[in-house]
């Protein structure tokens, strides 16, 4: 699928499939095209070229494009906020116009009960907190029992504690409804918590699709590695199957001799030990983060700084000259 806005090529050859009942997260930085892809799936936008197929039936292509309401897809988009002048139950009933008034009310109440908001049925949106409004929006999207639900940053307005709770509830509801969900997020951790699979986008192109484990442990490139963990990056060259870095030599099998490489080392994979062990380094800054501590270190040769994330208390207060050790699992080598 391709999409242009004017002369700008926004989606470039994206090909993606959500399996029935799965939660697929579209992940990527701002401007990578996630929302555009979701709007095309919803039918709010029509792609420049390419086809959309739902349950083996084409819903959009060169010859036809079903409008959003004929696609049998539930939408939870930020710009589809609740109607302020309607009660909560009427907001949820909004997508149930095919049903009689009585049946519509019944279904709306079932949906509100599922998100724990039935007791607010006669209230109005402005009387609810942000998290409560979000749950009502979820009830409204789920009430027509869509087979597919498209959600754009559904938890972005919530503070972090509420976000966890609403996210867990949402996942439970999606599982119970056996709905297929495509969820847009720019937050890798959220994608890992929520998604059965993750599709990572950059500049309108699909970088990698897979489970959280695939993307974290086997990132396709340096960009994917940096999106899933905080990393140190060292430029190097391969000699005798090894790349030299400020943290010592790193095995670079399957990469051609003399090839330029980027060596990524996760901050969490760098251990700070007593001087004399590991490779020598000097602490230049440290920041206490509760359970963990972020330590910035200088290494003797070269201007590279090394960042480490260690368990708080592991590095004695006042330590200056130290040693660095690296966990091999946290080293990734990419051809530049
Ligand atoms: N209606 C439009 N007209 C022109 N350009 C647009 C339009 N909508 C989006 N764009 C551009 O398309 C690109 C992709 O936007 P999109 O909203 O899909 O990205 P995104 O990954 O969802 O970003 P964010 O996380 O910031 O919402 C951006 O560069 C944006 O400026």
UniProtKB/TrEMBL annotation:
<protein>
    <submittedName>
        <fullName>ABC transporter ATP-binding protein</fullName>
    </submittedName>
</protein>
<feature type="domain" description="ABC transporter">
    <location>
        <begin position="1"/>
        <end position="228"/>
    </location>
</feature>
<keyword id="KW-0813">Transport</keyword>
<comment type="similarity">
    <text>Belongs to the ABC transporter superfamily.</text>
</comment>
<dbReference type="InterPro" id="IPR017871">
    <property type="entry name" value="ABC_transporter-like_CS"/>
</dbReference>
<keyword id="KW-0410">Iron transport</keyword>
<dbReference type="GO" id="GO:0016020">
    <property type="term" value="C:membrane"/>
</dbReference>
<dbReference type="InterPro" id="IPR015853">
    <property type="entry name" value="ABC_transpr_FbpC"/>
</dbReference>
<dbReference type="InterPro" id="IPR003439">
    <property type="entry name" value="ABC_transporter-like_ATP-bd"/>
</dbReference>
<dbReference type="InterPro" id="IPR050093">
    <property type="entry name" value="ABC_SmlMolc_Importer"/>
</dbReference>
<dbReference type="GO" id="GO:0015408">
    <property type="term" value="F:ABC-type ferric iron transporter activity"/>
</dbReference>
<dbReference type="GO" id="GO:0015697">
    <property type="term" value="P:quaternary ammonium group transport"/>
</dbReference>
<dbReference type="InterPro" id="IPR003593">
    <property type="entry name" value="AAA+_ATPase"/>
</dbReference>
<keyword id="KW-0472">Membrane</keyword>
<keyword id="KW-1003">Cell membrane</keyword>
<keyword id="KW-0408">Iron</keyword>
<keyword id="KW-0547">Nucleotide-binding</keyword>
<dbReference type="GO" id="GO:0005524">
    <property type="term" value="F:ATP binding"/>
</dbReference>
<keyword id="KW-0406">Ion transport</keyword>
<dbReference type="InterPro" id="IPR027417">
    <property type="entry name" value="P-loop_NTPase"/>
</dbReference>
<dbReference type="GO" id="GO:0016887">
    <property type="term" value="F:ATP hydrolysis activity"/>
</dbReference>
<keyword id="KW-0067">ATP-binding</keyword>
<dbReference type="Pfam" id="PF00005">
    <property type="entry name" value="ABC_tran"/>
</dbReference>
């Amino acid at each position: 699928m391709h999409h242009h806005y004017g002369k700008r090529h926004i989606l470039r050859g994206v090909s993606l499939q959500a399996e029935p009942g799965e939660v697929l997260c579209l992940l990527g930085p701002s401007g990578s095209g996630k929302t555009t892809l979701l709007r095309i799936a919803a039918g709010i936008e029509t792609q420049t070229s390419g086809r959309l197929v739902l349950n083996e039936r084409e819903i959009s292509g060169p010859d036809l494009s079903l409008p959003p309401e004929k696609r049998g897809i539930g939408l939870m988009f930020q710009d589809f906020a609740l109607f302020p002048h309607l009660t909560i139950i009427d907001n949820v009933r909004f997508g149930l116009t095919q049903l009689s008034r009585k049946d519509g009310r019944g279904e709306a109440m079932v949906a509100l009960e599922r998100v724990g908001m039935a007791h607010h049925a006669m209230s109005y949106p402005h009387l609810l907190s942000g998290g409560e409004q979000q749950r009502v929006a979820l009830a409204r999207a789920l009430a027509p029992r869509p087979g597919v639900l498209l959600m754009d940053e559904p938890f972005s307005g919530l503070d972090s504690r509420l976000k966890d709770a609403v996210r867990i509830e949402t996942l439970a509801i999606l599982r119970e409804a056996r709905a297929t969900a495509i969820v847009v997020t720019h937050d890798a951790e959220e994608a890992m918590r929520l998604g059965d699979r993750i599709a990572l986008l950059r500049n309108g192109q699909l970088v990698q699709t897979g489970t959280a484990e695939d993307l974290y442990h086997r990132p396709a490139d340096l960009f994917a590695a940096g999106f899933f963990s905080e990393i140190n990056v060292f430029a190097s060259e391969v000699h005798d199957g090894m790349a030299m870095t400020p943290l010592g030599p790193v095995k670079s099998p399957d990469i051609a001799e003399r090839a330029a490489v980027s060596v990524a080392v996760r901050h969490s994979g760098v251990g700070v030990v007593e001087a004399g062990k590991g490779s020598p380094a000097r602490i230049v800054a440290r920041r206490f983060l509760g359970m963990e501590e972020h330590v910035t270190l200088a290494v003797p040769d070269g201007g590279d700084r090394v960042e480490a994330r260690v368990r708080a208390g592991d590095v004695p207060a006042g330590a200056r000259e130290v040693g660095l050790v690296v966990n091999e699992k946290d080293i990734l080598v990419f051809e530049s």
